Amino acid sequence: MPRTIALQHPLDDTGLPHRQTPAQPTPAPAPAVADVARYHHPHFVRAEPGRSEGGVLYYFAPFTGREPEPEVPLAVYKDTAVTWEQSRELRNQYEAARIMWSKARLRLEAAPLLRRAAPLWEAWASTLAELRRVFGEFWSTADGQWRAQLLRLTDAERAARKAAGAWDGLAEQLAKLADAQVRVAGEYDELELGDVAREIGLDAKGWWIEHISEYEPVPYSRHDTPVVGDLNRVIEEQRERLREVAGLAGDRADRALA
Known about the structure:
- It is a single chain.
- The protein is mainly α.
- 50% of the residues lie in helices and 4% in strands.
- It has helices at 74-78, 84-136, 146-185, 193-199, 226-249, and strands at 44-49, 56-60.
- The chain is elongated.
């Protein structure tokens, strides 16, 4: 007599017992990725691959130099959805923005000073040439006119010192601006003052502007600014020669040159 046997597992289409597949765990949702466009600098336009491998070219709307210094928003570092890669890209973008901004600021602040510098440099060059001319006249000055020529020389010295001081004062201001630009952008992205001068139609070739450190006082030591110091050396060399000649001639006028 046939019997029915109860199966513990149902048969599949092959007639073999069908084992139930254990339930798979539900995958964790992918972490949210922030839309960092809201963190872009307001002047940012786009970024493109650069010529060098891994390089990036950043494009910005023109800076005026009046904007605040570009800084990555603090919200970027508080946003947990911002990935490390996104944060790095934003830092690079703001670094590029700072370079562009620093150059715009230098152009803005240096241009009026450079325009003032042109006549000051001409005045300095003119007074130095006059000083050398007056000194040169001693070779043809008669003995009876020695003291009168010394008076002309001291007048020329005063005029040259005044012009040298005026130039160094303005040169120091320009040196501070140039130093500030390099501090932001770095030496590889330095904007030369001569380039700024050319952009506004000035020829600054030969203008004596040193690094800002040359204008800063030195503790416990006398420190002349560059042009003033050079002028003082010229004056001392001239006076030393006159003292030598006056001494050889037995002329007591050498005391006035001490």
